[in-house]
Amino acid sequence: MAVVVIGNQLHTEKITLREQASFPVGVAVSPKRIAQSEYAKVVGQEFSSLTAENVMKPQYIWTSERNYDFSKGDSLVAFAQARQQQVHGHTLVWHLMQPDWLKNTIESYDSATLENLLRDYIQTVVKHYRGKVVSWDVVNEAVASNGDGMRESVYLQKLGDDYVARCHQYARQSDPDVLLFYNDYSIASNPKKLNTILEMVDDFQARGIPLDGIGMQMHVGLDLSLDDYQKALDEISQRGLKIHLSEVDIKVNSNGKQTTLTPELAESQRELMSEIVRRYNQLPEENKFAITFWGLRDNESWLTNHTGFPQWPLLYDHDFQRKSMYQGFLDGLETAQTTVDK
Ligand code: XIL
User: Fold this and answer.
1) Residue 39 included in any domain
2) At what angle are helices 263-281 and 226-238 packed, to 10 degrees?
3) Is the residue at 203 inside a domain?
4) I need a labelling partner for 234 at 20 to 30 A (CA). Which of 9, 76, 111, 140 fits?
5) What is the pLDDT of residue 165?
């Protein structure tokens, strides 16, 4: 195989994630970042799927009660189309990142007013992106943080227990083909949360509420229990749903004491990445939707702000060099064949 030297690193010329994986590999991006040429080049070569890290959230699209700004999301779709990448829509309904005007008015709406507004929002956005996105996270993080029942959000309070199901119906009415996901965090690490979500899935399936897949965000640390992760993959796939590892990053600095990514940490991260991919890759083809990373380079990860420390959680470093974690992804693809019958 042809090997070329770029900078001080060895690169195997033909290897890219999108060519190696049998399922789509995605990355969360912003219009600003993909406007940089080096960034655009790497994103175009490596990935076959894009998610907007922010610009397709209500905070960006929903400018006032019945006004919408699709310009930033559209620019991302155009970028993806030029590179034969699919786009995953994230997210129609979320208790966070709402536009200021909505934050200020939401408590004052009665149930029917809020329901109508939200229905119009969902339907307008889904129609706008019909044929342009393959999938949507319909409702994001609707389950309580600790996994015990539904989150006590303003949507639950005003619209009642069944609002997630109705949001799915509204989305389906506007696009018969787009895949509809429920997306949440800690599904792989909190069995209680997994259970609450499975109860919702079983209920949706019994009632014929449209649901095509589950987004497991996978903001994980080195302490992830592979048994819990495996259980989540098994339970969800057994229900015939697609699984999207939708926001993957691997924290290596949970206590904030690290000042660099040491070789030992990089190695642990590589190993965990490889196990995550290996087990995902063993799923039946029809259950694999995509694995999406929540950013390209360590220095741009949301986790630095969110946790208060650098976490070195992504595939690439600041200088656009592939990290050991990248190799871990490739290793996970390779070992899949031999362990299928375990
Ligand atoms: C994060 C973005 O990465 C940040 O840029 C933004 O400030 C906050 O939201 N779960 C989700 C994502 O579903 O939308 C979040 O993205 C990360 C946690």
Assistant:
1) yes
2) 20
3) yes
4) 140
5) 98
Are residues 140 and 151 in contact, defined by beta-carbon separation less than 8 angstroms? no
pLDDT given at position 14: 73
| Residue 186 maps to a domain | yes
Average pLDDT over every residue of 86-111: 97
Catalogue the active-site residues.
Answer: 141, 247
d(CA 244, CA 90): 12
Amino acid at 277: V
Q: How many domains does the chain have?
A: 1
Question: What DSSP assignment string belongs to 282-305?
Answer: TS-GGGEEEEEES-SBGGG-THHH
Any idea what the CATH number is for the domain that residue 216 is in?
Answer: 3.20.20.80
Which residues does a 6 A CB cutoff place in the pocket of ligand 1? 53-54, 140, 217, 247, 302
Q: How far is the CA of 235 from the centre of ligand 1 (A)?
A: 26
Is residue 6 included in any domain, yes or no?
no
**Ligand 1 atom 4: residue of nearest CA:** 302
pTM score above 0.85: yes
CA of 54 to the centre of ligand 1 (A): 7
**Which candidate, 49, 56, 57, places its Cα nearest to that of 245?**
49
Position with higher pLDDT, 11 vs 157: 157
Instruction: Give the structural domain span for 69.
Output: 17-341
Note the helical H segments in the chain. Answer: 17-20, 31-34, 37-46, 58-61, 71-82, 100-105, 111-128, 154-159, 163-174, 191-207, 226-238, 263-281, 303-307, 324-334
Q: pLDDT tens digits for 231-288?
A: 999 999 999 999 999 999 999 999 999 999 999 999 999 999 999 999 999 999 999 9
